[in-house]
Prior knowledge:
alpha+beta, 209 residues
Amino acid sequence: MSASSRIKREMDNFRKDNKGENVSIIPGNDILHMTGVIEGPDGTPYDKGTFRVSIEVPNDYPFNPPKMKFITKLWHPNVSSQTGAICLDILKDQWSPALTIKTALISLQALMCAPEPDDPQDGVVADQYKNNRSEFDKTAKFWTQTYATNDGSPPDSNAEAAASAAAIVIPAPVRRLMDMGFEQSSVEDALRRSAGDENAAVELLLSGC
Length: 209
């Protein structure tokens, strides 16, 4: 069975049997490229957030895993805060042809509930998770509120897509500090380090630390 045929079958099954796992798939321009959508799990810092995942299916699927990375910025030990790259065993050496795109998305949602900081993708986040859990929770919640507040639905037009992307890339707290003359990358880093406290972020920016 070709990768395209397998994906068509998976998509048909997904539409018939999606029992509220709070994951969905948005088809792309071709069948081997799509976007996964994960609702942030209740009781976690990601609650009320909607997270998008880029999915690229290789031509030899299902014998090799899909390539997935988060499009939505996520503060999590097993996800790069810079690139969205994911550290998850089933997307690497523990993949099985019996698994599906849906099960991979559900596994990502489970990872959001139970991070694995001893096998991190982002060492800074993992260190914070292990050594300052309350600060981690505050930062992860701030990132969720800042970057993951869209509804997960596909934009209706290129204009709406651009507006949505702009809202995600430059959220209000970042824009306010940028209006004070600071660079966007410095602002984002300061807000991250101060867990979203704008006054504390300004102090960091002014001190040059």
